[in-house]
Amino acid sequence: NQAFYDSAIHSRLPEDAVEISQEQHAALLAGQSQGQVIMPGKDGKPVLADPAPSHLHQWNGKEWMLDKAAASQLLAEAIDQGTDAINNLVDKAYRHVTRFQPEYLLREQQARDYKAGGCKGEAPLQVAAFAKPAGKTACEATDIIIAQADNLRMVMGKLGALRMRKFELKGLKTAAEVEKRTAEILAEIRPIADKLGEVGK
Q: Where on the tree of life does the source sit, at the highest rank (predicted)?
């Protein structure tokens, strides 16, 4: 039961108790304090081991093992978790844009219409609302609005393409490969997501 007993303290010991020396006891506790776990060896005596790589690994008295069925389950779980992580990060980034999307689309359309008309006449409401606090003329504001809209569309296109890379996970053979690929994809998504995080502030 992975517990220590002292005959000087405990009057009754479990039938399967295994005697160890004080030195062995101290070594086991020292290893445990460093993050290792105490497991039963093949001879029944406690040994130090690294923590189980996953909740599906089984201890055989010497090392952690993973049978074929457990490996398949672990792979499926890793794919699901990786897919969720990628989708959730992109979804969070999109929300910064979709929060005020009707406003962005209206401003872009008014800017493009105003630009098409040669920036003549009174500026549309959305263009004027952008120009005044920015200290820009209506025509300058129009160019900025259009450039921002084009850039935002390009950035979201990149983000969408990266999100589709989640399907790469299904072609991998081990959970470790899936976790590595997921980390790589997330690392590419984060800088773009951070840029979108500035939208709408």
A: Bacteria
Identify residue 98 by its one-letter amino acid code: T
Summarised one tens digit per residue, pLDDT across range 40-54 is 888 778 888 889 888
Distance CA 28, CA 38 (A): 7
Residue (of 150, 155, 147) closest to 191 by Cα position: 155
Burial class (CB in 10 A: 0-12, 13-18, 19+), 97: middle
Torsion angle of the four alpha carbons 107, 112, 117, 123, in this order, in degrees rounded to the nearest 10: 20
Buried/exposed code over 3-42 (b: 16+ C-beta within 10 A; e: otherwise): eeeeeeeeeeeeeeeeeeeeeeeeebeebeeeeeeebbee
